[in-house]
Specification:
The protein is an alpha+beta fold and 432 residues long.
Length: 432
């Protein structure tokens, strides 16, 4: 049981309880080093496993690690003990948008600003293959400046969870906010379902009440499926037109996010667009420590952090340092610094460093005495902001040569970028 005033992993202090659910609680927290206030979601592992929600938790962590946007609640860190999983997340000091709406509808400019931020956040999530599926005011938080923060990815779906026809089939979401195709249970596009929910939210922001509501759930579903709603007389004509295109029962005809952003009402008050450089290095490109441009462009992998948690909790995965195939450590150095050091180590061993895919490098070299190639795979995972797990493992080549390189050259040469080596002993010490 977690008590107020406890310190987690010698890094965060737990404060008052902010909320709780079936599988865990959310606490106010404070970073002991920086003093930054955070929210700490504490999940009971045993309850998750008994409810067969391991994949659900894994998905939530993976999604939060992939989605980093100014208007999405940020995951700072994931930690674990034998019994608990800790999500250290951004604290939205303004609370739930829902609480603000209980005081009444918003003025048009205020509603537009929040809708713009919502659409930008949802568009970003969709670009990463993530669909929220439970968008509603209760899952929309506000920071201290009143800016929107999308939260609660518990029901989110990754693109990989679609069936072969490209559709999602799990009925998720809150009844008043779900799209007609979700209710019909015939498969749906996550992106189009999210757009419908965004339309309901826009209506609520401007009207102060739901567009589709009936105390009888069947009647409410009927209204949703037929898109039966009535705008109050204070709604501007531009908003009415936009909502009519969002509330199209046919998802194939429903307006896209790109078209929403082109609407005259949406564009009011927006500044110039920012252009994001999305250059990447081609697979197989050789990397040199002097090539600063390439080092800057190398990105860590989109992490499935649940697997990383397992590394720190299942001690059976680790073998004594002089026998194990993998070498694993954490680092807080920037990715270019990590890569540069790996390149230098590879060069000292006559190994060439090549980028194979996102977050994955290969150290390759010919052992002339054995006439075979030694290949060492290097994977870099971002587990929180500016904190990484790096794993080296032998892909091919002589095991003895590999072990000698690890103990005599590689491990000593990497010390300067290592925050902590990971293994049975280091894991046990972290729990003390």
């Amino acid at each position: 049981m977690v008590k107020n005033g406890n310190v987690v992993m010698q890094k965060y202090e737990l404060g008052r309880l902010l909320g709780q659910g079936n599988f865990g609680k959310v606490y106010y927290g404070r970073d002991l080093e920086s003093g930054q206030t955070v929210a700490i979601k504490v999940i009971d592992k045993e309850k998750v496993q008994k409810a067969e929600l391991t994949e659900h938790t894994k998905r939530e962590i993976s999604v939060m690690a992939m989605v980093k946007h100014p208007h999405v609640v940020q995951l700072y860190e994931v930690m674990a003990t034998k019994s608990k999983i800790y999500f250290v997340i951004e604290q939205a000091k303004g609370g739930e948008l829902f609480n603000k709406l209980t005081k009444g509808r918003l003025k048009e400019d205020a509603a537009r600003k929040l809708f713009q931020q919502l659409i930008n956040a949802v568009e970003f999530c969709h670009s990463r293959g993530v669909y929220h599926r439970d968008l509603k005011p209760e899952n929309l938080l506000l920071d201290e400046n009143g800016n929107l923060k999308v939260s609660d990815f518990g029901l989110s779906a990754l693109a990989e969870s679609k069936r072969q026809d490209g559709l999602l089939y799990t009925t998720c979401g809150t009844p008043a906010y779900v799209a007609p195709e979700v209710i019909r249970r015939k498969g749906y596009e996550g992106a189009k379902a999210d757009i419908w929910s965004c339309g309901v939210i826009l209506f609520v922001l401007l009207a102060g009440y739901l567009p589709f509501y009936d105390s009888n759930l069947i009647y409410m579903y009927r209204k949703i499926c037929k898109a039966e709603y009535k705008c109050p007389n204070w709604f501007p004509l531009e908003v009415r037109k936009l909502l009519s295109r969002i509330f199209d029962p046919n998802p194939h005809k429903r307006i896209s996010i790109a078209k929403i952003k082109e609407s005259s009402w949406f564009k009011k008050g927006l500044g110039s667009k920012q252009v994001v450089n999305q250059n990447v290095i081609a697979d197989g490109d050789a990397v040199s420590s002097s090539d600063h441009t390439k080092l800057e462009l190398i990105k860590p992998a989109s992490v499935s952090a649940f697997d990383i948690i397992c590394w720190f909790n299942l001690s059976g995965l680790f073998i004594d340092n002089d026998q194990k195939e993998e070498l694993r450590f954490t680092s807080v150095k920037p990715v270019p610094v990590i890569i540069s050091r790996l390149v230098e180590v590879g060069k000292s061993l006559n190994l060439e460093v090549k980028k194979k895919e996102v977050g994955f490098l290969m150290l390759e070299g010919l052992n002339e005495s054995r006439y075979e190639t030694l290949c060492i795979g290097v994977q870099i995972f971002e587990i929180s902001v500016s904190r990484y797990v790096i794993e080296l493992s032998r892909s091919s080549g002589d095991a003895t040569d590999y072990q000698n390189m690890l103990t005599q050259t590689i491990r000593p040469a990497l010390e300067e970028i290592v925050q902590a080596w990971q293994g049975v002993q280091s894991y046990q010490q972290s729990l003390k």
